[in-house]
Amino acid sequence: MKQALIFTLLAVLLLPTAKGQETPQYEVKIITTIESIIPNGIGRSRLISTDAEVDYKEFTTRQTADNGDRNKSDREEIRIKDYDETKLLNFFNVGGIRFQNIASNDALLTSKINDMMSQGWELSFVNTGVESYGGADDTNGIFITRYIFKRLKVEGAPSSNDSIPE
């Protein structure tokens, strides 16, 4: 009985209480790789990231049964012009799949991820997709990967400082 009472008392004292506890606030950053899977190496492959802050609400409309107005946001207002673009190599060249290109892309991406981790970012999720027509004369295709990072927000600190010299 005495042990149960001590255990209960310790559990109550050691467990965080809801009162006074704040939910951790995170910031999120996404970097995207687009790697060409167009035969003969004629595509473009890139790693894209941005520190631009945008409020999605400025470009969002609510659709309801009573209000079906289309979203009239101007594409030019949505388009971000400040971003980092790192050149990657295409998966294919004239001779077919080029494994050196894949290894080079992996090294560049590893460098970017290591840099972000040194800034406190944690890789949370990776999402991939392939877009290709797939018909008999298919000459289109990309392999896209989104890397979603998070880190704890620090009050008063800038949200991101991943700047590249111009």
Q: Helical stretch count?
A: 3
Globally, the shape reads extended
What do the pLDDT scores average to?
A: 82
Low-confidence stretches: none
Radius of gyration: 24 Å
Overall strand count: 7
Helix content: 10-25%
What gap, in angstroms, lies between the N and C termini?
A: 70 Å
- Strand percent estimate: 25-35%
**SSE run:** HEEHEEEHEE
Instruction: Give, in spatial order, the strands making up the sheet with the most strands.
Output: 3-2-1-7-6
Structural class: alpha+beta
Biggest sheet architecture? 5 strands, antiparallel
Report on the structure:
- This protein has helices spanning 2-14, 75-78, 99-118; strands spanning 26-36, 45-49, 84-88, 92-93, 96-97, 122-131, 142-152.
- The chain has 166 residues and is α+β, with helices and mostly antiparallel strands.
- The model has no long low-confidence stretch (mean pLDDT 82).
- It has a five-stranded antiparallel beta sheet, covered by helices on one side. Strands 4-5 form a two-stranded antiparallel sheet.
- Strand 1 (26-36) and strand 2 form a beta hairpin.
- Helix content is 22%, strand content 28%.
- The protein has three helices and seven strands.
In short:
The chain is α+β, with helices and mostly antiparallel strands and 166 residues long. It is built from three helices and seven strands; from the N terminus they run αββαβββαββ.
What's the layout of helices and strands?
Elements: H1 2-14, E1 26-36, E2 45-49, H2 75-78, E3 84-88, E4 92-93, E5 96-97, H3 99-118, E6 122-131, E7 142-152
Antiparallel strand pairs: 1-2, 1-7, 2-3, 4-5, 6-7
